[in-house]
Design brief:
Length: 491
């Protein structure tokens, strides 16, 4: 839940910050001095008690840790690790939890407005009421901090006790620490204290002691003094964490490109309608020949499968675009709200995959590309402007339809594979999930654009196509003009 008494500096999926600064607020920082940490776990207990978090099932894996990593109900935990440093075995301990980055990757990746906020004091907070459970933040975080709860379908992490801070109290972990290994205060004061403590450590023989606040994420509001500063990874910390370029590109330039490309496809369809108009050639052909009959084109099973594909495609576009762009987030309300829309999206995708697979089985032989299909594609302009004299004759499906079919098939395979990466980031890993999101959105841009063009051609530009897929029958003049080879083969 967002703390409304503290001004917001930045928020997920919005272009503007807090409308007004309520009070001047200094940056706050929590400092963890690992040279003072005894691994007593008082911080773990205090966090659980203050946030009313239930205990997790313990796991015995040869460590003093209660379990291997953070969970949706364990927001901080002391990590223990043995490492060989300068030829000696050292027993390292580190309090793990959200780093509260100045440039938080989780906030950049989140598609839900105000699901993640960054307050003026630098603290990054999750608002579970706005969380869709998409897990984009989970895969984006370079520290693997956010934890997804499959029961509530929400993501959780350390809040830095924002409620206590608002009341003028320190975080519960800092209050509970018996050795003052955890301190909290204004950034400039904490940094001065950190420099003093590091100098003391150097004098004691820890020549590589340093302050861990990586620049790749803009610095952090949870800083750590590492006695063995050259052994960052032995503390189970990334050496050079950063907001992944994939995340930045996917949420920035790719989103802009996608909006432009899909918009141009839509505008191109309108432009075609204005300039070329609907195809009237079949009507002229019927009037010239003076006879017309109905031809069977699609049986009932094919039509049912096709409309299942079409309906699921529309629902996929609606639910997908709501996650794709903050400006289209309102589309999620069509499917019952952000949470249900995100939950339904992959399952609708499964229905789409199965139904398209059935359609593929029925049509793949008819979709074999022949030499005259290549000629049709080369001469596609004549088809688009309804130039009947120069249109290359086609069989049941023309070259353009066949090309789109095979592109759809390849695109669907990419969407399915990348969708699995996004759906199960815990199984495939953060990089696979980030790459999956990039590939998913890139493929979806062309996929949706192709669907827009297909809908326009079949519903508006080429009268008779829709009737053929509803009733299963087409007029002989329509078949002769658009699919003459197929019509002749049926006679």
């Amino acid at each position: 839940m967002i703390n409304n008494s503290i001004a917001i500096k930045n928020a997920s999926a919005v272009s503007s910050n807090s409308p007004a600064i309520r009070t001047e607020m200094p940056e706050l920082v929590k400092l963890i001095d690992l040279s003072r940490c005894t691994g007593c776990k008082a911080c773990e207990v205090a966090c659980k008690e203050w946030n009313n978090l239930p205990p997790d099932k313990t796991e015995n894996f040869g460590s003093m840790q209660l379990h291997r990593s953070l969970t949706p109900t364990t927001w901080t935990m002391v990590y223990f690790n043995e490492a060989v440093i300068d030829g000696n075995v050292k027993y390292l301990m580190r309090k793990n939890g959200c780093m509260h980055c100045e440039n938080p990757a989780c906030l950049t990746a989140c598609p839900s407005p105000y699901a993640i906020v960054q307050y003026e004091n630098g603290i990054v907070d999750f608002n579970q009421d706005k969380c869709t459970g998409c897990q984009f933040c989970v895969s984006a975080c370079p520290f693997n901090i956010p934890q997804f709860d499959s029961v509530s379908n929400r993501v959780y992490k350390c809040t830095l006790c924002i409620d206590r801070i608002d009341a003028g109290l320190p975080p519960s972990c800092a209050k509970a620490c018996p050795t003052s290994a955890i301190t909290f205060g204004e950034k400039h004061k904490i940094l001065d204290n950190a420099k003093t403590e590091i100098k003391k450590l150097v004098k004691r023989g820890f020549k590589n002691a340093k302050l861990y606040s990586p620049k790749g994420v803009g610095g952090t509001h949870v800083m750590t003094i590492l006695p063995y500063g050259n052994n960052t990874e032995d503390y189970e910390l990334p050496k050079n964490p950063e907001v992944s370029p994939l995340t930045t590109f996917t949420k920035g330039p790719l989103a802009v490109f996608g909006g432009l490309f899909m918009g141009l496809t839509t505008l191109g369809s309108f432009a075609h309608l204005i300039t070329a108009g609907q195809s009237k050639a079949p009507e002229a052909l019927a009037a010239k020949e003076g006879k017309e009959e109905e031809i069977d084109r699609h049986n009932l099973a094919t039509r049912i499968i096709h409309w299942t594909v079409a309906i699921s495609a529309v629902l996929l576009i609606v639910s997908g675009l709501s996650l794709y762009s903050p400006k289209l987030f309102w589309l999620s309300n069509i499917l019952g709200g952000p949470q249900s829309s995100r939950f339904l999206h992959p399952w609708i995708g499964v229905i789409f995959l199965i139904s398209f697979g059935l359609l593929f089985i029925r049509w793949f032989k008819d979709m074999a590309i022949k030499p005259y299909d290549i000629d049709f594609i080369k001469n596609i302009y004549s088809y688009l402007i309804h130039d009947e004299k120069n249109i290359v004759k086609s069989d049941k499906f023309n070259g353009g339809q066949k090309l789109v079919f095979w592109c759809f098939s390849a695109g669907l395979a990419l969407l399915f594979i990348s969708g699995l990466f996004i759906w199960f980031p815990g199984f495939f890993g953060s990089f696979a999930a980030r790459f999956g999101l990039f590939l998913h959105e890139l493929t979806a841009i062309f996929f949706i654009s192709a669907i827009i063009a297909h809908f326009y051609l079949s519903l508006i530009a080429i009268p008779g196509s829709l009737a053929g897929m509803i009733t299963g029958k087409v007029k002989s003049s329509w078949a002769r003009f658009h699919h003459g080879l197929w019509l002749n083969g049926n006679k």
